[in-house]
Amino acid sequence: MPRIDPLPLSETPEDVKSAYTAHTTQYNARITNMKATLGRSLLAFQVYMDWYPLYEQIKTFIGNRPAYLFAYTVSVGSNCPLCTTFFRKIIIDHGEVPEDLKFSGNEQLLMDFGSAIAREQGRIPDELFEKIAKLYTSQQIVELVAFAGQMIATNVFNNVLETDIDEYLSSYGK
């Protein structure tokens, strides 16, 4: 049971409804329990939805699969049931089994980086960071770390408020 219920559409202010419409149109996304809870504050909704353009950006240099797997490893490292389930759905819908993922060497390094950012609260061993620095530019590393931070913020939001896992995700949980 969530600590704060998602805002019912019937109680949603017009400015938030407009933000919902813009978001769902631009990203072909749905208004989930998390987003409807964020809808209680237009500013909070807008800040958290900036996750989407950063996600699109990191896909340009790491690729689609590594991007959603990176988000998955951050979510697992943050112990966030909702976000982990969301990315399990993406993994499964792409024909893979989350418990049996195979990575190339560089993908494994990227997954280790994302997981370590979450588990170690950003305290990355020098050896791991140096390997990442050989693969990505400074700008790309900044974007990866910023994306991981946004993912962690999303994980924290859902964990603190105990946001219910959306019905459409229920069959994708462990």
Description:
The protein folds into 2 domains: 8-49, no CATH class; 50-172, Up-down Bundle (AhpD-like). 67% of the residues lie in helices and 0% in strands. The chain has helices at 14-27, 33-38, 42-49, 51-62, 64-77, 81-93, 105-119, 126-135, 138-161. α4 (51-62) crosses α9 (138-161). The chain is globular and about 50 Å long.
Q: What are the salient characteristics of this protein?
A:
174 residues, AhpD-like, globular
Give a brief rundown of this model:
This protein is 67% helix and 0% strand. It is an all-alpha fold. InterPro entries: AhpD-like (IPR029032).
Topology of this protein?
Elements: H1 14-27, H2 33-38, H3 42-49, H4 51-62, H5 64-77, H6 81-93, H7 105-119, H8 126-135, H9 138-161
Helix pairs in contact: 1-3, 4-5, 4-9, 5-6, 5-7, 5-9, 7-8
User: What is the CA–CA distance across the termini?
Assistant: 19 Å
Strand content: under 5%
CATH class of the largest domain: Mainly Alpha
Relevant CATH superfamily of the largest domain: AhpD-like
Count of the domains: 2
The residue fraction in helices comes out at 55-70%
InterPro entries: AhpD-like
Organism: Chitinophaga silvisoli
Protein name: Carboxymuconolactone decarboxylase family protein
